[in-house]
Each structure stands twice: as C-alpha cells, then as structure tokens.
C-alpha cells in the first residue's frame, strides 16, 4: 500500500496548465494560441508558471531527470510534474491539496533544489523588465478625453513635458516615469505609456477586459499609423488574427470604410471574429481563407493592404515559445518563402492598391530586408517610402543600409534601444506611370 489517498483529485488549474503544456510540447499548437483559447477562470494566474517553465526549461527538465522522479513514479504525468515542480520551486513555492502527484513532488523538493544547484532563486529571478506598459485607447469604444478622465479619477498623474524636440528626449522621459505617472506616445496619438511595474494592473483592468484599452506594444502600433488609410477607404488585412492591427486600422479609419480581414486558421479566425466584434469594429468583413487565394473580385476596390505574415517572432521579448532561440536557417528559409509569396500576391492581385505595409516581429534580415528586396525586384511598379520620414525623422533605427535603397527606408523597433518589442516595417507605394 502506498499510503496515499488516490481519491483526492489534482486541482483543476494544475491539470489544465499541464494539458496546455503537453499539447505545446507535442508541437500540436503554439503556447500562445493555447493560452488564447483557454477558458478556465483560474488559468490566468497559472500563466506565470508556464512563463517560468519556458524561461527555465533546460534547468527544470535537467533537475527532473537528475532526481529520477518520473522513473521512480511511472504513473506521474510528465507535463503535470513539470508544472508542479515549477510552481513548488520557482513559483508560489507551495502546492495546493493532497493529491498523489502533489505529495510526490513535495517529497522530492529538497532533491530538486539540490539538482538545481542549491539556489533556485537565482534561476527564478526575472531579467529586469525595463519595457514600459503600453496601453492603446480603442477609439471605437472610448474617446481620448474620456480615457484621460478615467485615469484622473484613478489618481494617475499625467507627466507634463514640452513637445519633444527629438526621440532621445522622449526615451529619456519614459525611463524617468514614476510608478503612478503616465505619458502619451510621441508617434501614436492614442498610445499611453506607463511604468513597467503596472503591467499586471492593466492586464486585469476592466477597460482592458472590455476592449476599451488594448495592450499593444509600441512597434506594432506603428504599422497602422504608417499604413494610414483614410476614413472611408478599403483595406485588406491579409494575415489578420488575432486582430490587433485590424482593430487599430479601424481606429485610424474612424470606423468608416471597409476592412477585409483574412485568416486561414479556423481557430484563430474565430478569435479574430470575436475580438473585432467586441472591440466595436463596424467595418470589418472577416474572411476565412488562405490569403494567397483571395482575389480582387472577392475584395473589391482594395486600396491599402497590410501584410503581417507568420514569422520567427525573434523580436518578441516575452514570447511564450518552447522553441530554442537559436536562428534556424531551414525554418527561416521556409518562412521567407511564404512571406515573399504573400507580399507579392498583395502587389499583383489588387489593381486599385495604392499602399502596402509589410511587417514582422522578427529581427532577422532574411524575413525583412531580403523579403523586401526580392519583392521589389519581382514587382518594379512599387517603391519604398521612407518610414523614418513619415515619423518626421524623429526615429533612430532603420534597416541594414547595405541593402541599397532599401535599408534606410525600412524601420525597426529594437528592444535594446526603443523600449519596445522588435518589429520591422516597410511601406510600399504603387508608382505612377510617369515615375
Ligand atoms: C503574425 S500573425 C498576425 C497578427 C495580426 N496581424 C495582429 O496584429 O493581431 C500571422 C497570422 O497569419 C495567419 N496566416 C498565415 N498564413 C496565412 C495565409 N496563407 N492566409 C491567411 N492567414 C495566414 C496565421 O494563422 C496568423 O494568425
């Protein structure tokens, strides 16, 4: 007899997180998608455990291996073991209930700590997060003045500053923000900037739940701003889910005109439909399809196109990815092939197109400058606009200037300099026959 009471159930939140981790480890879906889909109310709290596991995966797996906990307890589910070990050693440092898996992991606590080198705190310590919390006002549902009034009611202090002469002064002001202060972004009118310590506050705020506020990083906000479709125009968003940029584009267009939002993945398509509806987008026509098959007959009169294809995500700072960070040339080649096809389709299939924004959350030239170069070679009726000039030259990071006529016109947000995730943006315009 083991002495354990087998009828005591494992708490649901541990089981749910373990199920998500198992699916992600089996490469059936990405962690990000699984988290979006997760409905269990307690799951939000448990996301921190997943993040800790992802950040310390090597060390935790090694400790589990060294202690032989799985070999000695063959009925213990490996994913559940990873979740419980992470929670016990790096997370809350305690486990709920008296179920057998919980008791087993507790029994191994000292051995696990020893296997982790005796000081698990040094592992669990987060890198200092200096990225501010960006909060964008969704003007479909909330006016800027109403947003500022709510902030004043909540005792947030608006940082006063003269108009910024240059970008460096602006970055300095962000770094000097106090915890109860906020300021407005200098490039994106409806973007609020808070001290990094307020990340969780805004993640659980009612305005965020109601989609009046969108938690959208600075770089991704620049895409809709630079595409800049006027109210009443017709836009095609070729890779639209979950819908952050579609929603922003609808704000830029004052919710007037048409946005065809295409997504091929059925689950992500449902997320796109729900997100854009709850964000008050009245002009979005969602299309479940492979964007490469979408025609001008289906989406008539398209003037502005957003191409934001799947990419390596190498620019994302807090990405929940189980993939190792090293550059994988084979994967990049495949991604770049699809990115070129997608951008070329945008350039060739829609006769009324005036402007195209191409963006990735990658810092690799293979997915950025090289895609732009190839597409311009294949489609000479397009030229690049200078994204930096569009930001009144108050910007620093552009592309690699070794790509002649390309690098200097493209824009990067770089985590090391711009206090934002790494994003690449290129803006194309159709040339007139005289050009
Ligand atoms: C980087 S995400 C887009 C993020 C989105 N623009 C936003 O701001 O929320 C890329 C999306 O493109 C979708 N996708 C990839 N290839 C596609 C294709 N051929 N047709 C339509 N959607 C595609 C992916 O499923 C994914 O949801």
UniProtKB/TrEMBL annotation:
Chain sites annotated for binding S-adenosyl-L-methionine: 263, 290, 308
Domain SAM-dependent MTase RsmB/NOP-type per the UniProt entry, residue ranges: 123-431
Gene3D superfamilies associated with the record: Sun protein, domain 3, Vaccinia Virus protein VP39
Keywords: Methyltransferase, RNA-binding, S-adenosyl-L-methionine, Transferase
Organism: Stomoxys calcitrans
Any one Gene Ontology molecular-function term assigned to this protein's record: RNA methyltransferase activity
Family from the record: Belongs to the class I-like SAM-binding methyltransferase superfamily. RsmB/NOP family.
Pfam family, one: Methyltr_RsmB-F
Protein origin, superkingdom: Eukaryota
An individual GO BP term: rRNA base methylation
Active site: 361
Cellular component per GO, a single term: nucleolus
Official protein name in the record: SAM-dependent MTase RsmB/NOP-type domain-containing protein
């Amino acid at each position: 007899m083991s002495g354990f009471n087998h009828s005591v159930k494992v708490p649901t939140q541990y089981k749910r997180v373990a199920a998500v981790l198992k699916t992600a480890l089996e490469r059936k879906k990405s962690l990000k998608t699984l988290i979006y889909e997760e409905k269990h109310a307690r799951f939000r709290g448990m996301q921190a455990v997943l993040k800790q596991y992802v950040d310390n995966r090597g060390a935790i797996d090694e400790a589990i291996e060294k202690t032989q906990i799985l070999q000695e307890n063959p009925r213990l589910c490996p994913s559940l073991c990873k979740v419980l070990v992470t929670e016990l050693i790096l997370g809350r440092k305690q486990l709920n209930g008296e179920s057998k898996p919980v008791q087993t992991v507790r029994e191994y606590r000292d051995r696990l700590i020893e296997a982790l080198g005796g000081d698990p705190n040094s592992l669990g310590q987060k890198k200092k997060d200096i990225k501010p919390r960006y909060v964008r006002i969704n003007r479909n549902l909330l006016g800027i003045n109403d947003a500022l009034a709510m902030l004043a009611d909540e005792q947030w202090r608006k940082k006063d500053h003269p108009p910024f002469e240059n970008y460096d002064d602006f970055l300095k002001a962000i770094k000097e923000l106090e915890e109860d202060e906020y300021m407005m972004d200098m490039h994106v009118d409806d973007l609020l900037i808070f001290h990094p310590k307020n990340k969780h506050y805004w993640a659980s705020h009612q305005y965020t739940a109601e989609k009046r506020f969108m938690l959208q990083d600075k770089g991704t906000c620049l895409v809709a701003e630079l595409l800049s479709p006027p109210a009443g125009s017709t836009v095609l968003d070729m890779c639209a889910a979950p819908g952050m940029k579609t929603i922003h584009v609808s704000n830029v267009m004052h919710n007037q005109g048409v946005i065809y939002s295409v997504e091929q993945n059925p689950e992500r398509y449902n997320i796109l439909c729900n997100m854009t509806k709850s964000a008050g987008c009245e002009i979005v026509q969602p299309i479940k399809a492979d964007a490469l098959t979408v025609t001008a007959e289906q989406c008539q009169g398209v003037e502005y196109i957003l191409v934001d294809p799947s990419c390596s995500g190498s620019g994302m700072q807090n990405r929940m990815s189980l993939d190792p960070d090293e550059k994988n040339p084979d994967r990049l080649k495949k991604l770049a092939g699809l990115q070129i096809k997608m951008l070329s389709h945008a350039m060739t299939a829609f006769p009324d197109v005036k402007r195209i924004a191409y963006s990735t959350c990658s810092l690799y030239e293979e997915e950025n400058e090289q895609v732009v170069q190839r597409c311009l070679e294949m489609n000479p009726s397009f030229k690049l606009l200078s994204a930096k000039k569009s930001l009144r030259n108050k910007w620093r990071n552009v592309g690699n200037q070794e790509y002649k006529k390309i690098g200097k016109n493209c824009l990067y947000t770089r985590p090391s300099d711009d206090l934002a995730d790494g994003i690449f943006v290129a803006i194309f315009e159709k040339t007139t026959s005289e050009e």
